[in-house]
Amino acid sequence: MRVLAAMSGGVDSAVAAARMVELGHDVTGVHLALSKNPQTYRSGARGCCSLEDSHDARRAADVLGIPFYVWDFSDRFAADVVDDFVAEYAAGRTPNPCLRCNEKIKFAAVLDRGIALGFDAIATGHYAVLREVDGRTQLWRSAEQAKDQSYVLGVLNQAQLSRCLFPLGPDTAKADVRAEASARGLYLAKKPDSHDICFIPSGDTAGFLAKHLGSSAGDFVDEQGVVVGSHAGSHAFTVGQRRGLHLGVPADDGRPRYVLGIEPTTNTVTVGPHEALAVRRIDGIRPTWAEAEVLGSWRGLVQVRAHGAALPAWIEGRTESITVLLDDATHGIAPGQAVVCYDGDRVVGSATIAATAR
């Protein structure tokens, strides 16, 4: 089988590529150039898109003895991930750019090009499990729960999953991956994992957004609409945020206040106590089903954060939307994020959170 190994420059993708080679597949490594100027993205251990990472990926490919290419997806990444990130914040929502990158770049644009070039599948270093059942490819949680990445893969559809390979997911612990990389002579065995948002070099999300969206004085208001402070732009905040509010009027009970809601049209941020963040209902739009549409009402689990807990719920599936009714309230869910639905440890589908209610 001709396999396109997506090599980020990290230890996971390098070992995934090595396992594909060991299984006898015809493997070609590819690194994605996501910025016209790599210096504008994170460097060192904090990113996955730096110039340094492309060199690390190339050295790993050399050790494995496989062809290696760098594909320029900078224009597509800017439009589908960076511009989307800015637009979502401008609309008062909180996007997940890594999830969007998986959806639009790594498993859409890359896979499309790979298939056009005659490749059969794409292999990555994600921690998740794929199983073939009755002619369909199912997506399951990784054997190592602490590293499970099924949440960020929940945006993939059946056509994409059927072309994916996740060699690390079934039985591999992170420590074993590093040991395997060392044994294979891959010098990046000790390279730290990437974190944070690759296209914000400083880690200052508020500053990045201010640069793109500007500053505009607005009010913090409490649940009664009383002004309790001012800010330089509602796009700098997200639901559930506590730090960095700098409110001018303390709460009557002296307790901390959190962002409860964002209204970009009036540039207003509503704040209140932690218990006001409680959510029992989640409305999602643009659902993506891993295998096939699951319509009607059914019991399942949902996850609303990349490393969040699985929450028991009733799920109502429709062609263009879903509604989730949680058994127990959870806190700090922001519109724009993803809700991923599970049947046990199997991914059923996902949707973008459009609204929440207590």
Automatic annotation (TrEMBL):
It is an enzyme of class 2 (transferase). It catalyses: S-sulfanyl-L-cysteinyl-[protein] + uridine(34) in tRNA + AH2 + ATP = 2-thiouridine(34) in tRNA + L-cysteinyl-[protein] + A + AMP + diphosphate + H(+). One of its GO terms (molecular function) is tRNA binding. GO terms for biological process: tRNA wobble position uridine thiolation. It is found in: Cytoplasm. Pfam families: tRNA_Me_trans, tRNA_Me_trans_C, tRNA_Me_trans_M. It comes from the Bacteria. The keyword rRNA-binding does not apply. CDD domains: MnmA_TRMU-like. Residues 208-272 form the tRNA-specific 2-thiouridylase MnmA-like central domain. The active site is at 101 (nucleophile), 198 (cysteine persulfide intermediate). The record marks 126, 337 as: Interaction with tRNA. ATP binds at residues 6-13, 32, 125. Its main location: cytoplasm. The keyword tRNA-binding applies. NCBIfam families: PRK00143.1, trmU. Catalyzes the 2-thiolation of uridine at the wobble position (U34) of tRNA, leading to the formation of s(2)U34. Belongs to the MnmA/TRMU family. This is tRNA-specific 2-thiouridylase MnmA. The gene is mnmA.
